[in-house]
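FAQ: What does the model actually see?

It sees only this:
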Amino acid sequence: MVDDIAGHRVEVGDASGCEDALADDLGWGLGMIFRAYVKAAHAAVADLPGGPRGYQVLSAAAQGTVASQLALAQHLGVDRTVMTYLLDDLEAASLIERRPDPADRRARRIVATQKGNELLTSLNDRLRAAEAHLLAPLGAETRATFRAQVRLLATQLDAVDPPDSPCDLADEVDAEIPAPRPGARSARSH
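And it is asked to produce this:
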């Protein structure tokens, strides 16, 4: 139970112990949502070379949003050497191609192949399914409102204090999330 409106208590599920004490803490709530999202998103793209980074590269290649391999590395905040290995893996899987840039023969454009575009469609479906599962406790109207509020907050915060790189920010937060202990079970599963 948590206070929904002053003087009113609403049930929030099977919260106990530490979770009960933190139920009103915004940071704890955002952390739990983010952790669940990251876990679901990683699982959705796990079979793609490079996982989430591979998804970002494939998505950018399919959209044609970045002009060159170097620009793509800079855009995603990926070291050039790491980007080369990632592109090698995606190219070996026939998901992308490196094509000479007509404007600069030394540069290579990264383009999604037909197989890459087809896989991207499947990955996008998997990510939407993961998001739907994560947001399932909310009704359709509440999900739409939640998404709109998150988008509003994110764009406002980005305008006021943009991160150097969204990828660096995600890596920073990812590094702070502890991995589950082997054999540890949630108090809810007892």
